[in-house]
């Protein structure tokens, strides 16, 4: 599977009424921060499908392992029938997202409400 291959969305659409969990990352989005987030996402979808919302508005630096880790978080959530949605205005994340052409794989929504209401 190529990194640009879209990760399948959940078979059934999750509404904004579905259980959701809010997570935030600040500073550097790297292997260390993603390791912490990985456990949080796994716990969020452990018992039932849920929407996991990640606020990236305070991200000031992103490493290649940070990009790969976000794709892993998406995989974890969707493999459990949930979804992983990223929101917030972060110039460094927007630059990496655009440069790596990840728009087909993972969307970055401007606001939490946009992410929560997104139809998948």
TrEMBL record:
CDD domains: STAS_anti-anti-sigma_factors. Residues 23-119 form the STAS domain. It comes from the Bacteria. Pfam families: STAS_2. InterPro entries: MlaB-like_STAS, STAS_dom, STAS_dom_sf. SUPFAM superfamilies: SpoIIaa-like (SSF52091). This is STAS domain-containing protein.
